[in-house]
Protein backbone atom coordinates (compact mmCIF):
# COMPACT_ATOMS: atom_id res chain seq x y z
CA UNK A 1 0.00 0.00 0.00
CA UNK A 2 1.38 3.40 -0.98
CA UNK A 3 1.67 5.84 1.86
CA UNK A 4 0.68 9.46 1.37
CA UNK A 5 3.52 11.89 2.04
CA UNK A 6 2.99 15.16 3.85
CA UNK A 7 3.61 18.31 1.85
CA UNK A 8 6.32 19.48 4.24
CA UNK A 9 8.18 17.53 6.86
CA UNK A 10 8.95 19.34 10.11
CA UNK A 11 12.36 19.88 11.69
CA UNK A 12 13.63 17.99 14.70
CA UNK A 13 11.90 18.58 18.01
CA UNK A 14 13.48 19.70 21.27
CA UNK A 15 15.60 17.83 23.81
CA UNK A 16 14.45 14.26 24.20
CA UNK A 17 15.31 14.25 27.87
CA UNK A 18 12.43 16.55 28.73
CA UNK A 19 10.11 13.65 29.48
CA UNK A 20 6.76 14.22 27.87
CA UNK A 21 3.39 13.02 29.10
CA UNK A 22 1.76 10.45 26.90
CA UNK A 23 -1.00 11.78 24.69
CA UNK A 24 -4.45 10.44 25.46
CA UNK A 25 -5.86 8.27 22.68
CA UNK A 26 -9.13 6.59 21.79
CA UNK A 27 -11.16 9.45 23.28
CA UNK A 28 -14.88 8.82 23.59
CA UNK A 29 -17.80 11.07 22.80
CA UNK A 30 -21.15 10.85 24.60
CA UNK A 31 -24.09 9.51 22.61
CA UNK A 32 -27.75 10.33 23.08
CA UNK A 33 -28.12 7.92 25.99
CA UNK A 34 -25.14 9.39 27.81
CA UNK A 35 -22.94 6.35 27.13
CA UNK A 36 -19.51 7.00 25.69
CA UNK A 37 -18.72 5.91 22.14
CA UNK A 38 -15.21 5.73 20.68
CA UNK A 39 -14.70 8.24 17.90
CA UNK A 40 -13.59 7.07 14.47
CA UNK A 41 -10.31 8.18 12.95
CA UNK A 42 -9.54 8.43 9.25
CA UNK A 43 -6.38 6.62 8.15
CA UNK A 44 -4.21 7.96 5.27
CA UNK A 45 -5.97 5.70 2.75
CA UNK A 46 -9.34 7.21 3.66
CA UNK A 47 -10.62 4.35 5.81
CA UNK A 48 -12.62 5.13 8.93
CA UNK A 49 -11.58 3.03 11.91
CA UNK A 50 -12.48 3.10 15.58
CA UNK A 51 -10.99 1.29 18.54
CA UNK A 52 -14.44 -0.23 19.09
CA UNK A 53 -13.68 -2.33 16.00
CA UNK A 54 -10.84 -4.00 17.93
CA UNK A 55 -12.22 -5.89 20.91
CA UNK A 56 -9.83 -7.81 23.18
CA UNK A 57 -11.02 -9.28 26.46
CA UNK A 58 -9.23 -8.46 29.68
CA UNK A 59 -7.44 -11.57 30.93
CA UNK A 60 -5.76 -11.87 34.30
CA UNK A 61 -1.99 -12.04 33.95
CA UNK A 62 -1.99 -10.65 30.41
CA UNK A 63 -1.38 -7.09 29.23
CA UNK A 64 -3.41 -5.84 26.28
CA UNK A 65 -2.10 -3.33 23.76
CA UNK A 66 -5.30 -1.43 24.62
CA UNK A 67 -3.78 -0.80 28.06
CA UNK A 68 -0.74 1.02 26.58
CA UNK A 69 -2.52 4.19 25.37
CA UNK A 70 -1.26 3.85 21.80
CA UNK A 71 -2.32 5.96 18.79
CA UNK A 72 -5.30 4.53 16.93
CA UNK A 73 -3.28 4.20 13.72
CA UNK A 74 -0.82 1.95 15.56
CA UNK A 75 -3.66 -0.02 17.15
CA UNK A 76 -5.22 -0.64 13.74
CA UNK A 77 -1.89 -2.00 12.47
CA UNK A 78 -1.59 -4.20 15.57
CA UNK A 79 -5.08 -5.57 14.90
CA UNK A 80 -4.21 -6.22 11.24
CA UNK A 81 -1.09 -8.13 12.32
CA UNK A 82 -3.18 -10.35 14.59
CA UNK A 83 -1.70 -9.17 17.91
CA UNK A 84 -3.91 -8.91 20.99
CA UNK A 85 -1.78 -9.27 24.11
CA UNK A 86 1.73 -8.00 24.76
CA UNK A 87 4.58 -10.47 24.97
CA UNK A 88 6.64 -10.41 28.16
CA UNK A 89 9.31 -8.09 26.70
CA UNK A 90 6.64 -5.76 25.27
CA UNK A 91 4.77 -5.50 28.56
CA UNK A 92 8.03 -4.90 30.44
CA UNK A 93 9.51 -2.24 28.14
CA UNK A 94 6.68 -0.23 26.59
CA UNK A 95 5.62 1.70 29.73
CA UNK A 96 9.16 3.15 29.97
CA UNK A 97 10.02 3.57 26.28
CA UNK A 98 6.69 5.23 25.49
CA UNK A 99 7.68 7.89 28.05
CA UNK A 100 10.98 8.45 26.21
CA UNK A 101 13.28 6.62 28.61
CA UNK A 102 16.40 4.88 27.38
CA UNK A 103 16.40 1.11 27.63
CA UNK A 104 18.89 -1.70 28.05
CA UNK A 105 17.06 -4.92 27.27
CA UNK A 106 18.23 -8.49 27.53
CA UNK A 107 16.11 -10.63 25.24
CA UNK A 108 16.57 -13.34 22.66
CA UNK A 109 15.04 -13.59 19.20
CA UNK A 110 11.45 -14.76 19.12
CA UNK A 111 10.41 -12.78 22.20
CA UNK A 112 8.66 -9.94 20.37
CA UNK A 113 11.37 -7.34 21.02
CA UNK A 114 11.22 -6.00 17.44
CA UNK A 115 7.61 -4.95 17.83
CA UNK A 116 8.44 -3.63 21.31
CA UNK A 117 10.91 -1.00 20.11
CA UNK A 118 9.04 -0.25 16.86
CA UNK A 119 5.73 0.45 18.62
CA UNK A 120 7.44 2.86 21.03
CA UNK A 121 9.27 4.69 18.25
CA UNK A 122 6.32 4.93 15.86
CA UNK A 123 3.90 6.04 18.60
CA UNK A 124 6.27 8.83 19.62
CA UNK A 125 6.63 10.07 16.03
CA UNK A 126 2.84 10.17 15.63
CA UNK A 127 2.19 11.81 18.99
CA UNK A 128 4.83 14.50 18.52
CA UNK A 129 5.10 15.45 14.84
CA UNK A 130 7.99 17.85 14.26
CA UNK A 131 7.42 21.46 13.32
CA UNK A 132 8.82 23.36 10.36
CA UNK A 133 10.44 21.84 7.31
CA UNK A 134 13.30 19.37 7.07
CA UNK A 135 15.16 17.77 4.20
CA UNK A 136 14.03 14.31 3.21
CA UNK A 137 17.35 12.61 4.14
CA UNK A 138 17.14 13.53 7.85
CA UNK A 139 15.60 10.43 9.50
CA UNK A 140 13.84 10.65 12.85
CA UNK A 141 14.56 7.06 13.85
CA UNK A 142 17.52 4.74 13.28
CA UNK A 143 17.70 0.97 13.87
CA UNK A 144 21.04 -0.81 13.49
CA UNK A 145 21.17 -4.59 13.11
CA UNK A 146 24.18 -6.88 12.59
CA UNK A 147 22.95 -8.84 9.56
CA UNK A 148 21.15 -8.03 6.34
CA UNK A 149 18.49 -10.65 6.96
CA UNK A 150 17.66 -9.30 10.42
CA UNK A 151 17.60 -5.70 9.15
CA UNK A 152 15.21 -6.63 6.35
CA UNK A 153 12.92 -8.50 8.72
CA UNK A 154 12.84 -5.50 11.08
CA UNK A 155 12.05 -3.24 8.11
CA UNK A 156 9.24 -5.59 7.06
CA UNK A 157 7.67 -5.41 10.53
CA UNK A 158 8.11 -1.63 10.55
CA UNK A 159 6.26 -1.42 7.23
CA UNK A 160 3.36 -3.34 8.74
CA UNK A 161 3.22 -1.17 11.87
CA UNK A 162 3.33 2.08 9.84
CA UNK A 163 0.81 0.85 7.27
CA UNK A 164 -1.86 3.34 8.36
CA UNK A 165 0.48 6.31 8.83
CA UNK A 166 2.45 8.73 6.65
CA UNK A 167 5.76 7.47 8.07
CA UNK A 168 8.22 6.05 5.55
CA UNK A 169 10.65 3.19 6.23
CA UNK A 170 13.89 2.78 4.28
CA UNK A 171 16.34 -0.12 4.63
CA UNK A 172 20.05 0.40 3.94
CA UNK A 173 21.84 -2.95 3.84
CA UNK A 174 24.98 -4.26 2.21
CA UNK A 175 24.91 -6.85 -0.56
CA UNK A 176 21.91 -5.21 -2.25
CA UNK A 177 21.50 -2.52 -4.91
CA UNK A 178 23.38 0.57 -3.69
CA UNK A 179 21.97 2.90 -6.37
CA UNK A 180 18.40 1.93 -5.56
CA UNK A 181 18.96 2.73 -1.88
CA UNK A 182 20.66 6.02 -2.78
CA UNK A 183 17.71 6.95 -5.00
CA UNK A 184 15.30 6.30 -2.13
CA UNK A 185 17.24 8.70 0.07
CA UNK A 186 17.22 11.34 -2.64
CA UNK A 187 13.57 11.09 -3.69
CA UNK A 188 11.59 9.95 -0.62
CA UNK A 189 10.98 11.46 2.79
CA UNK A 190 12.75 9.21 5.29
CA UNK A 191 11.30 8.82 8.78
CA UNK A 192 12.82 5.52 9.87
CA UNK A 193 16.03 3.87 8.65
CA UNK A 194 16.82 0.22 9.31
CA UNK A 195 20.44 -0.53 8.44
CA UNK A 196 23.50 -2.69 8.74
CA UNK A 197 26.57 -0.78 10.03
CA UNK A 198 28.80 -0.83 6.94
CA UNK A 199 26.25 0.34 4.38
CA UNK A 200 24.85 3.00 6.73
CA UNK A 201 28.34 4.37 7.34
CA UNK A 202 28.93 4.60 3.59
CA UNK A 203 25.81 6.73 3.13
CA UNK A 204 26.44 8.82 6.25
CA UNK A 205 30.05 9.67 5.32
CA UNK A 206 28.98 10.74 1.85
CA UNK A 207 26.21 12.92 3.38
CA UNK A 208 23.52 10.96 1.53
CA UNK A 209 21.87 10.47 4.90
CA UNK A 210 22.21 12.90 7.83
CA UNK A 211 22.06 11.52 11.36
CA UNK A 212 22.46 14.70 13.42
CA UNK A 213 18.69 15.08 13.98
CA UNK A 214 17.90 11.47 14.83
CA UNK A 215 15.55 11.30 17.81
CA UNK A 216 15.69 7.59 18.58
CA UNK A 217 18.46 5.01 18.05
CA UNK A 218 17.95 1.25 18.45
CA UNK A 219 20.90 -1.14 18.58
CA UNK A 220 19.60 -4.68 18.10
CA UNK A 221 21.60 -7.84 18.92
CA UNK A 222 24.54 -5.82 20.22
CA UNK A 223 26.47 -8.92 21.28
CA UNK A 224 26.45 -10.19 17.70
CA UNK A 225 27.66 -6.83 16.43
CA UNK A 226 30.56 -7.23 18.85
CA UNK A 227 31.37 -10.80 17.79
CA UNK A 228 31.12 -9.90 14.10
CA UNK A 229 33.53 -6.97 14.46
CA UNK A 230 31.05 -4.15 13.78
CA UNK A 231 31.53 -2.14 16.96
CA UNK A 232 34.09 0.33 15.45
CA UNK A 233 31.57 1.16 12.70
CA UNK A 234 28.74 1.48 15.23
CA UNK A 235 30.85 3.85 17.34
CA UNK A 236 31.44 6.04 14.28
CA UNK A 237 27.69 6.06 13.56
CA UNK A 238 26.74 6.93 17.14
CA UNK A 239 29.13 9.90 17.07
CA UNK A 240 27.12 11.28 14.13
CA UNK A 241 23.86 11.26 16.10
CA UNK A 242 22.82 13.83 18.74
CA UNK A 243 24.32 13.54 22.22
CA UNK A 244 22.75 10.79 24.31
CA UNK A 245 20.95 13.41 26.44
CA UNK A 246 19.13 14.62 23.33
CA UNK A 247 18.12 11.29 21.83
CA UNK A 248 16.39 8.14 23.04
CA UNK A 249 18.54 5.00 22.89
CA UNK A 250 17.39 1.41 23.15
CA UNK A 251 19.98 -1.38 23.23
CA UNK A 252 19.03 -5.04 23.02
CA UNK A 253 21.34 -8.00 23.47
CA UNK A 254 20.88 -11.70 24.18
CA UNK A 255 24.04 -11.72 26.32
CA UNK A 256 25.98 -8.99 28.09
CA UNK A 257 29.74 -9.56 28.00
CA UNK A 258 31.83 -6.85 29.69
CA UNK A 259 32.43 -4.96 26.43
CA UNK A 260 28.70 -4.68 25.76
CA UNK A 261 28.03 -3.60 29.35
CA UNK A 262 30.58 -0.79 28.94
CA UNK A 263 29.08 0.34 25.62
CA UNK A 264 25.56 0.23 27.05
CA UNK A 265 26.61 2.58 29.87
CA UNK A 266 28.44 4.83 27.41
CA UNK A 267 25.59 5.16 24.90
CA UNK A 268 22.52 5.44 27.15
CA UNK A 269 21.25 8.14 29.51
CA UNK A 270 19.81 6.92 32.84
CA UNK A 271 18.35 3.82 31.16
CA UNK A 272 15.69 1.48 32.42
CA UNK A 273 16.93 -2.11 32.47
CA UNK A 274 14.79 -5.09 31.54
CA UNK A 275 15.77 -8.75 31.31
CA UNK A 276 13.48 -11.31 29.72
CA UNK A 277 15.43 -14.52 29.30
CA UNK A 278 14.49 -18.17 29.80
CA UNK A 279 15.88 -19.82 32.91
CA UNK A 280 17.48 -22.42 30.70
CA UNK A 281 19.82 -21.40 27.89
CA UNK A 282 17.70 -23.33 25.45
CA UNK A 283 13.95 -23.14 25.06
CA UNK A 284 12.02 -25.71 27.13
CA UNK A 285 9.54 -25.99 24.23
CA UNK A 286 12.21 -27.73 22.14
CA UNK A 287 12.44 -31.52 22.26
CA UNK A 288 16.18 -32.21 21.86
CA UNK A 289 17.66 -35.54 20.85
CA UNK A 290 21.10 -36.67 19.68
CA UNK A 291 21.45 -39.70 17.39
CA UNK A 292 24.82 -41.40 17.74
CA UNK A 293 25.53 -42.71 14.26
CA UNK A 294 28.25 -43.66 11.82
CA UNK A 295 29.05 -41.29 8.96
CA UNK A 296 27.37 -43.49 6.35
CA UNK A 297 24.13 -43.61 8.37
CA UNK A 298 23.57 -39.83 8.42
CA UNK A 299 22.11 -39.33 4.95
CA UNK A 300 19.58 -42.22 4.95
CA UNK A 301 18.40 -41.28 8.46
CA UNK A 302 18.05 -37.62 7.46
CA UNK A 303 16.09 -38.52 4.33
CA UNK A 304 13.74 -40.75 6.31
CA UNK A 305 13.32 -38.08 9.01
CA UNK A 306 12.27 -35.42 6.49
CA UNK A 307 9.94 -37.77 4.62
CA UNK A 308 8.27 -38.83 7.87
CA UNK A 309 7.76 -35.20 8.87
CA UNK A 310 5.80 -34.57 5.69
CA UNK A 311 5.49 -30.88 4.88
CA UNK A 312 7.00 -29.60 8.12
CA UNK A 313 9.25 -26.57 7.80
CA UNK A 314 12.81 -27.78 8.47
CA UNK A 315 16.32 -26.31 8.71
CA UNK A 316 19.42 -28.48 8.37
CA UNK A 317 22.71 -27.05 9.63
CA UNK A 318 26.06 -28.12 8.26
CA UNK A 319 29.50 -26.95 9.38
CA UNK A 320 31.06 -26.35 5.96
CA UNK A 321 29.98 -24.90 2.63
CA UNK A 322 30.94 -28.03 0.69
CA UNK A 323 28.82 -30.14 3.04
CA UNK A 324 25.94 -27.72 2.51
CA UNK A 325 26.25 -28.02 -1.27
CA UNK A 326 26.42 -31.82 -1.09
CA UNK A 327 23.34 -32.06 1.13
CA UNK A 328 21.42 -29.67 -1.10
CA UNK A 329 22.15 -31.81 -4.17
CA UNK A 330 21.15 -35.02 -2.39
CA UNK A 331 17.87 -33.48 -1.19
CA UNK A 332 17.02 -32.26 -4.70
CA UNK A 333 17.72 -35.71 -6.17
CA UNK A 334 15.40 -37.16 -3.52
CA UNK A 335 12.65 -34.80 -4.79
CA UNK A 336 12.57 -32.86 -1.51
CA UNK A 337 11.52 -29.23 -1.85
CA UNK A 338 14.66 -27.48 -0.62
CA UNK A 339 17.02 -24.51 -0.95
CA UNK A 340 20.48 -23.57 0.31
CA UNK A 341 21.72 -20.63 2.38
CA UNK A 342 25.44 -20.07 2.73
CA UNK A 343 27.98 -17.30 2.32
CA UNK A 344 28.50 -18.19 -1.33
CA UNK A 345 24.84 -17.53 -2.20
CA UNK A 346 24.23 -13.95 -3.42
CA UNK A 347 22.35 -11.63 -1.08
CA UNK A 348 19.46 -11.09 -3.50
CA UNK A 349 18.98 -14.84 -3.82
CA UNK A 350 19.21 -15.30 -0.04
CA UNK A 351 16.44 -12.73 0.48
CA UNK A 352 14.21 -14.43 -2.10
CA UNK A 353 14.93 -17.85 -0.60
CA UNK A 354 14.03 -16.68 2.91
CA UNK A 355 10.80 -15.16 1.61
CA UNK A 356 9.84 -18.47 -0.04
CA UNK A 357 10.74 -20.40 3.10
CA UNK A 358 8.64 -18.00 5.15
CA UNK A 359 5.56 -18.34 2.92
CA UNK A 360 5.87 -22.12 2.71
CA UNK A 361 6.99 -22.35 -0.93
CA UNK A 362 10.17 -24.05 0.30
CA UNK A 363 10.01 -26.83 2.88
CA UNK A 364 13.67 -27.45 3.76
CA UNK A 365 16.62 -25.08 4.12
CA UNK A 366 20.22 -26.25 4.30
CA UNK A 367 22.34 -23.57 5.97
CA UNK A 368 25.70 -22.72 7.48
CA UNK A 369 25.90 -20.95 10.84
CA UNK A 370 26.64 -17.50 9.38
CA UNK A 371 23.62 -17.62 7.06
CA UNK A 372 21.45 -19.41 9.61
CA UNK A 373 21.71 -16.70 12.25
CA UNK A 374 19.70 -14.40 10.00
CA UNK A 375 16.75 -16.81 9.88
CA UNK A 376 13.94 -15.46 12.05
CA UNK A 377 10.92 -17.38 10.80
CA UNK A 378 8.03 -18.62 12.93
CA UNK A 379 6.64 -22.15 12.81
CA UNK A 380 9.88 -23.99 12.05
CA UNK A 381 9.02 -27.46 13.32
CA UNK A 382 12.39 -29.18 13.02
CA UNK A 383 16.08 -28.25 13.21
CA UNK A 384 18.68 -30.87 12.25
CA UNK A 385 22.35 -30.59 13.12
CA UNK A 386 23.91 -32.74 10.39
CA UNK A 387 27.11 -32.40 12.39
CA UNK A 388 27.61 -31.03 15.88
CA UNK A 389 28.91 -27.44 15.75
CA UNK A 390 32.49 -26.64 16.77
CA UNK A 391 31.26 -23.97 19.19
CA UNK A 392 28.62 -24.93 21.82
CA UNK A 393 27.09 -21.44 21.52
CA UNK A 394 26.31 -22.21 17.87
CA UNK A 395 24.23 -25.17 19.06
CA UNK A 396 22.08 -22.75 21.09
CA UNK A 397 21.65 -20.41 18.12
CA UNK A 398 20.86 -23.25 15.73
CA UNK A 399 18.12 -24.94 17.71
CA UNK A 400 16.73 -21.53 18.70
CA UNK A 401 15.28 -21.33 15.18
CA UNK A 402 12.50 -23.68 16.35
CA UNK A 403 10.12 -23.51 19.33
CA UNK A 404 9.64 -19.76 18.92
CA UNK A 405 6.70 -17.73 20.22
CA UNK A 406 5.54 -20.50 22.56
CA UNK A 407 5.25 -23.12 19.79
CA UNK A 408 6.61 -26.65 20.20
CA UNK A 409 9.77 -27.50 18.29
CA UNK A 410 12.17 -30.35 17.81
CA UNK A 411 15.91 -30.60 17.23
CA UNK A 412 17.75 -33.69 16.03
CA UNK A 413 21.55 -33.79 16.09
CA UNK A 414 23.84 -36.38 14.55
CA UNK A 415 26.95 -37.29 16.52
CA UNK A 416 29.68 -39.55 15.12
CA UNK A 417 32.95 -40.71 16.63
CA UNK A 418 34.51 -37.61 15.02
CA UNK A 419 32.48 -35.04 16.95
CA UNK A 420 30.75 -36.80 19.87
CA UNK A 421 33.35 -35.30 22.22
CA UNK A 422 31.38 -32.04 21.85
CA UNK A 423 28.32 -33.44 23.65
CA UNK A 424 29.56 -32.75 27.23
CA UNK A 425 30.58 -29.20 26.25
CA UNK A 426 27.18 -28.53 24.70
CA UNK A 427 25.37 -29.93 27.74
CA UNK A 428 27.52 -27.79 30.06
CA UNK A 429 26.66 -24.71 28.00
CA UNK A 430 22.89 -25.29 28.02
CA UNK A 431 22.87 -26.49 31.62
CA UNK A 432 21.01 -29.73 31.00
CA UNK A 433 21.56 -33.19 29.56
CA UNK A 434 20.33 -34.10 26.10
CA UNK A 435 18.63 -37.40 25.34
CA UNK A 436 20.93 -39.63 23.28
CA UNK A 437 19.72 -42.51 21.12
CA UNK A 438 22.11 -45.06 19.65
CA UNK A 439 21.23 -45.96 16.06
CA UNK A 440 22.22 -49.47 15.09
CA UNK A 441 23.66 -50.22 11.67
CA UNK A 442 21.01 -51.25 9.19
CA UNK A 443 21.39 -54.67 7.61
TrEMBL record:
Start-end of Basic residues biased regions: 14-27
Keywords associated with the record: ATP-binding, Cytoplasm, Helicase, Hydrolase, Nucleotide-binding, RNA-binding
Quaternary structure, from the entry: Component of the RNA degradosome, which is a multiprotein complex involved in RNA processing and mRNA degradation.
Catalytic activity: ATP + H2O = ADP + phosphate + H(+)
Enzyme class name: hydrolase
Species of provenance: Marinomonas communis
Keyword Protease: no
Domain Helicase ATP-binding: 94-274
Origin: domain of life: Bacteria
Short sequence motif named Q motif, residue ranges: 63-91
Name of this chain's protein: ATP-dependent RNA helicase RhlB
EC number, UniProt record: 3.6.4.13
